[in-house]
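re the bet — no i am not wrong, look at it urself. input seq straight from the record:
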Amino acid sequence: MEYSSISIELGKGVLDHNNRKFIAENVDREKTKNNIEYKNISLEEAYHILFDEALERYNQKRRKDRRIENYLEHIQNGNQEKPFYEIIVQVGSRDDMGVGTENEELAKKILDEYMYNFEKRNPNLFVFNAHLHMDEATPHLHIDFIPFTTRSERGLDTRVSMKSALNNQGFYASGRSDTETMAWLQFEKEELAGVMKWHGVEWEQQGNNREHLSVLEFKKEQRSKEVEELEAKVSNLESDYENLTTAIKTVTAPKNNEEFEEEFILPEPQRLESAKNYKNRIEEMFDKLKALVKSVLVQYFELQGRYNRLYYEKQMFSHENYKLNESNKEYQSKNKELKNQLRDYRLLRKVLGSQEVEHILEEAKTKNRRRNIEWEHTR
C-alpha cells in the first residue's frame, strides 16, 4: 500500500492562468498538451445560464430605478458575495506524485475520477471552468464554480450564495472557526481519499500540525477579509461623521448657509400685531428647527457610537490576524521539518525495504518501552 497526502485549498481563481491564456514561468509549455479541459464557459455566459430567468422575474416586480440590469456587475460591485470561487486539488507532492515520476499517471487517474463525480456531489455549485494541469511540477485540478441557492425569499429567487449553497447540500457551521466551507472542504478530502484508496493509495494525514496549519491559514484569510470589510465600513462612517459635523455646524451657525437663513429667518412683526399672534405665527418655524437639530444630533451620536465600535473591532481583528500570521509561520516551519523527516523515512523504506524498516522500528519501540519501565522502577 502506498501513502500520499491530500491538498484541497481555496484558490484565487485566475481564469486566464487556468485556461493557459497566459503562461507562468513554472509551466512547461511542451507538456501543456497533456492538460485536460473539463469546462471552459466564460463567467458572463455562466451568469446568463444561471440567473437570467430569475433576474427577469425580479425586475418585473420592481420599479425601473430599482431594477438590476446586469447581475454579474451587481455582485462584483457589492461586498456581500464573491462572483465565483475556486478550489485547487492535488494528490501528493512533486517527490511522490510529481510530473515525470513513476506515479504521474496514477495521480492523473485519481484526479480525473475525482473530477468526474464533483458536480454530482455538489448540485448547488455550478462549475463553469475546470482544468487538470499536467504541465507544472505536480498534477493538480483547478475547479471554478458559482455557488447558488434557489427559492430565495430575498433578492433574486435564484441567487449567488456560498453559505446557502452549502447549507442546501447539508453543510453547516458548528462555530465561528468551523464554517460551512471548512466542513465541505473536509468532506471533499474524504471523497478524494476514497478514490485514492480504490487505486491502492492510502491518505497520509500528516498529523495535528498539518491540520492545524490548514485551519490557521483559513482563519487568517477570513480575518483579513473581515478587517477589509470593517475598514470599508469605518471609511463610510468617517464620511457620514464629517457630513453630520458639517450639518451641525450649519445648524449652530446659520449665517454660513444662505438657504438655511432664508428658510428660518424670523419674520418682522406686523403693524399692531399682538405678541400672542406673532408667537403663534413663528412657533411652527421653531418647532421645525428644533426637530431638525434633534434629528441631526441623534444621528450624530448614533454614528459616532457605531464608528467607535467598528474601529475597536477593526483593531481587535487586526491584532488577531497578526497573531495568526505569526503562528502560521511557526507551523509552516514545523511542517517543512516533518516533510523532510517523511522524505528520509521513504528513502529508508526504498533502500532497506519495508520489512527491514518495520523490523528496525519495532526494535526501537521495544527498547523505548523497556527504558520507560526501568525508569518507572527507579523513581
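see?? Strands lie at 2-4, 6-10, 36-40, 85-91, 125-133, 140-149, 159-160, 201-203. told u. also Residues 208-215 have pLDDT under 50 and may be disordered. so pay up
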